[in-house]
Amino acid sequence: MPDASEPYKSSQYWTSHHNWNEDVELPDEIKFHDTTFRDGEQQPGVVFSEDEKVELGKLYSEMGIDRLEPGLPLVSDDDKRAIERLANEGLDADVYAFTRCVKEDVEVAVDCDVDGVVMEVPSSRHLIEHAYDWSYEQALEYAIEATEYAHEQGIDVSFFCIDSSRADPDDLITILSRVKEEGHADSLNVVDTFGALSPAGTRSLVNLVSGEFDIPIEIHVHNDFGLGVANTLAGIQAGAEIAHTTVTGLGERSGNANFEEVATALTALYDYDLNLDLSQVKEIAEVTSDASGVDIHESKPVVGQNQFGIEAGIIAAWWNRLREQEMPLAMYPYHWDLVGQNAPRIAIGKMSGLATIEYWCDRLGLQAPPEDVQEDILQSIKGTSIGEKRELSPEEFVDIYRDTYNPEN
Question: Is Ribonucleoprotein one of the keywords (predicted)?
Answer without folding.
Answer: no
